[in-house]
Amino acid sequence: MAIAKKTPAEIAIHRFEYAPAPEATDHIKVEPRYSLFIGGRMLEPHSKKRFPTINPATEEQLSEVAEADEVDVDHAVVAADKAFGPWSRLSPSRRARYLFRISRLIQERARELAVVETMDGGKPIKESRDVDIPLAAAHFFYYAGWADKLDWAFPNRKPRPLGVAGQVIPWNFPLLMLAWKIAPALAAGNTVVLKPAETTPLSAMLFADICRQAELPPGTVNIVTGAGKTGSLVVSHPGVRKVAFTGSTEVGKLIQRSLAGSGKRLTLELGGKAANIVFEDAPLDAAVEGIVNGIYFNQGHVCCAGSRLLVQESIAEPLLEKLKVRLSTLRLGDPLDKNTDIGAINSKAQLEKIEGMVASGIEEGAEIYQPECKLPDRGYWFKPTLFTNVSQSYRIAREEIFGPVLSVLTFRTPAEAVEKANNTPYGLSAGVWTDKGSRILWMAERMRAGVVWANTFNRFDPSSPFGGYKESGFGREGGLHGLLPYLELN
Length: 490
Ligand code: NDP
Description:
This protein is of the alpha/beta class.
């Protein structure tokens, strides 16, 4: 007797329902308004302007943050410059102690930081709790370890700090990106002016409080909130010796152009359109988990997201069937619920961008699949989406969508996989799924990607350098390499 096969939608209906398990928020104190963290104090902005920051899952205002203008940014750079002398002359082991202290404080306040990160950015609490915050603490811990070993790290080179670092970060991993920027800069003896993203400033404001708790010398870290204009004031300030930027390729190019000839050091960590390549000998169930983690983690707001699935033609059908079933079991909804897999899209603007890209995919002829799932009435949401019948020329196969949208392409031979994987202006990351170690090495050698994951995806470690080729930017963050952009080596 033939057994009737269930469609993904039928399986979804029969999935287990979980009781709501929202993370408590009563231990969180979000101030109604925040000022600028300059010279170790919270200062009223000269601009006298503030803007709201909202919870993208509810559209409710959480707080108001200051908008730093030219005078404010100048105050911050002057404070950082004043702090640079004493900080850079401090004995390296004392500098390390401050970084260890910050790391410990992040661990102690992890629950609070995770909840605020989720409320301000929309990411599921299980991700902010288990990924963002522990990795942020690990970064400070890791670079604390280097602070007093720079002479051994770069033997016979006399490493010296550069001065004030101007750092601009995006909204997808707010505290983690802050840690990627601030930890190596401080470990190398520099001081910092950092601008968080307009839509996610709150964890940076909590970090300002952590700096005060750690008794970090005033001015060593300064945080100026604002929009893109504030970011451009930070990077163009003549007192800034080194610029570190993570964000879109478009703004990265603008910054690179504006800094040409200034003598400032620059590192850019920009967009991506990573290929996640599955060979026919791959363990399919594990690969499905890797694909889901690759593109639906953090709603796909990930620069190294595996947004192009390249699957060997012979297994395309069974793999896609498994993937669709898995998609139908993902839970979308309240980001503060511990069982939520897909949270809210970070902002209305980002939602509109995703909707526009998805519409272009349909228009160009790709076939869309979205599981049945109810979207909450308020907030910004987008269903996990997958496109088949995608041609390499489609916008959804070429441009960064930065949302939970996967484009599926097929290949027949390893050489074709390499060619398709490299057929992108970006070069940040890639994934290879196969049973053969020799094939992993063969593929990794040929792919123009800063990181190649083998039989896994989206794994991060502070000791491992991360960065891109081509339009994904230049310079490396993490590991020993992450110190180099912050040092002069004689
Ligand atoms: P942006 O590149 O505009 O933002 C990144 C950071 O740069 C933010 O802090 C932003 O401030 C700031 N910024 C904006 N303009 C300037 C400027 N001229 N000079 C200096 N700093 C500036 O990204 P968006 O937030 O606008 O997102 C747009 C698209 O970029 C996304 O859809 C996604 O595709 C991509 N993106 C990629 C990221 C990555 O890691 N690869 C991260 C974020 C976005 P503010 O937030 O106030 O605008």
